[in-house]
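REVIEWER CHECKLIST
Item 1: Sequence provided? yes
Item 2: Single chain? yes
Item 3: Sequence as submitted:
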Amino acid sequence: MSVTGEHDPSALPPEEMQRAQLYALLAHLLARPPGGEFLAALSALDGSALDGDASPLGQALRGLAEAARGTDAAAVEEEFNTLFIGVGGGILSPYGSYYLTGFLHEKPLAELRGDMALLGIARADEVKEPEDHIAALAEMMAGLITGAFDAPADLEAQRRFFDRHIGSWAGRFFTDLESTPSAAFYRAVGTLGHRYLEVEVKAFDMAA
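Item 4: Structure as written out by the authors:
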């Protein structure tokens, strides 16, 4: 996504940077298959910075690290293509419109584009995927937290965007990803996404 403004993310509280980093991690993993260097970095994750090793989110991060250590870039690329691209479409459709209506390019995408315009978010020219792709939405959430599109959005604005465009369907997508037989490395990505959304919902509820 292209942006209309910039903000220094180093000024954010550590917990907000952590949130943004997790959204950015999910965006990276779901936009394209990670290469060898990125897999090597993932293999070093231990989850200890996230509410202790025993937290479900910390366990999910360690599971992702274990999955990264047990594969290589070629295998992950093949898995990614099977799951999300394929011949005539992958096994899973990572689009909000599809999960909410059963079809692509439907009303949820139009609503998202309207909210993007209000927030100053524009799709980059080289991006061909519809904006309701889960990777793009995770990237947008990261940008709202860090102020990539203007000043950092307050929690109310973040929750409004989350509820309308992510919370309404992405949990089902991540659950499907966890349970798809063709997923190996991406099963761990599904678990991470599932656990992180649970944390986000609880945090938004506590802040309400």
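Item 5: Key structural point noted by reviewer: The longest helix spans residues 185-207.
Item 6: Recommendation: ____
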